[in-house]
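Q: For a teaching handout, I want to show students what a protein-ligand complex looks like in token form. Below are the inputs, and the small molecule is guanosine-5',3'-tetraphosphate. Please produce the holo structure.
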Amino acid sequence: MSFLSEIERRRTFGIVSHPDAGKTTLTEKLLLFGGAIQEAGAVKSNKIKKGATSDFMEIERQRGISVATSVLAFEYNGIKINILDTPGHKDFAEDTFRTLTAVDSVIVVIDVAKGVEEQTEKLVKVCRMRNIPIIVFINKMDREGKDAFDLLDEIEQKLSLKVVPLSFPIGMGYDFKGIYNIWEKNINLFTGNSKRDIEETIKISELSDSKLNNIIGDHAAETLREELELVEGIYPKFSKESYLNGDLQPVFFGSALNNFGVRELLDCFVSIAPKPRPKQSEERIVNPCEDKFTGFVFKIHANMDPNHRDRLAFIKIVSGEFKRNTPYLHVRHKKKLKFSSPNAFFAEKKEIVDISFPGDIVGLHDTGNFKIGDTLTEGESLNYKGVPSFSPEHFRYINNADPLKSKQLFKGIDQLMDEGVAQLFTLDLNGRKVIGTVGALQYEVIQYRLEHEYGAKCSYENLNVHKACWIEPESTNHPEFIEFKRVKQRYLATDKQGQLVYLADSVFSLQMTQQKYPSIKFHLTSEY
Ligand code: G4P
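A: Here is the structure, written as tokens, with guanosine-5',3'-tetraphosphate included.
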């Protein structure tokens, strides 16, 4: 197969949702349809069960599972599909944000009863910022939930999307009869008694066909006709171009657990979802069909085995072919590296591969060379953008609890930060180190891993910080900036990239500071 056809047939995407909406179940059903797994239950949920914040076994279990499910690749009708796993737990939200830099599109799963939930809102916001094409799957139609039109309204309002239903439910919960597939113009009838059965599909070319009344009954048939008329009146016509530009989001209804509506979703997905897209680097836009290889690290995973400190760096291939045993330039280190055993991921296994194409993810063994955001090329000095850090929500001083192990502690902290477990800030005033995280869980992960992987002990001390803001002065010798640095010295720190950060202790002080120094910009992300 030619290089261009290999690119053409790749679809790399992520499934995002609030925990419990059905992401794992849907992933598993997609793999079943793709023939990548043989039975339900094969994909383990990577969820951390509620209340497990102190359970290290649970954290370790989660780490193990998330290596296994980081990328799930399978083939469907000649299309190579790469699903990138996104943790649902909010303490790992930053992992998910970073993974979103490596997807070409997403499917958002929404629970019909719960509607749009908090995590979904945050994740969709990031997708919209990057114009990532989105398909919405409304799940659990076998249960009582919100009215379809109300839910579509809610999705438009809370997620600022412009939706277009490509399927429509016939009833819901106890009365759920099936789905009218607007995309393919047919009806799928729900049997509901077996979780494994693929549903029955009946072709109905005309909605006015009396066959519809015979199948679902007069009342349901009439309601469906009225509702579809409304759909036609209210929602725009589906346009693939608008979907690909991020301006329009198709919606499907179904029940992942019951295998219902999943094939329709998958069929539509493979026909409309984008192939690998061009990507912006600091220097220029890079096109997937360029013949020279480029790629970037979006995730680093420490190995399960504490005796080996090697890690797996996940690289998204943006352009060209990635070949085994070929020297590539590590742009940040300005040195060439060769990889003898790049891993590709399949549903149930990983394998060493000789060649990978744009859209693919390869896992490279790393002994500490990589950090998130690093770029690899065939020689060009190119830096991919878009793996920003967000302001953490929690901040604590980290102290060395075993003075004999300070070297190990610093090495450990350094490597964990490169993996993106948390962010490190060094206070300008006294050099003390502050760890910022998205969730409280990370502090326990860090403490545990420092001890078990690096033999170092740490303790934490509370620090009252509301947000970290990356500072952008108009110029470094502007009098206002000089004054700001003098007055706020106690609150200034440097992040791992050497950027200046202001640690605001409250909403109020942040507002006051912004007002007082209008020439300085305060950013809540490290890239602006
Ligand atoms: P997540 O990855 O988004 O967190 O969700 P997951 O797939 O784990 O699903 C969360 C719960 O919702 C699971 O039940 C799952 O069986 C159920 N579920 C998923 N899809 C559907 C659906 O279409 N209909 C109904 N009724 N339920 C659905 P659980 O009891 O938490 O877990 P389990 O014991 O069944 O594994």
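A: Two things your students might notice: Residues 47-54 have pLDDT under 50 and may be disordered. The pocket of guanosine-5',3'-tetraphosphate is lined by residues 17, 19-25, 45, 47, 88, 139-140, 142-143, 255-258 (CB under 6 Å).
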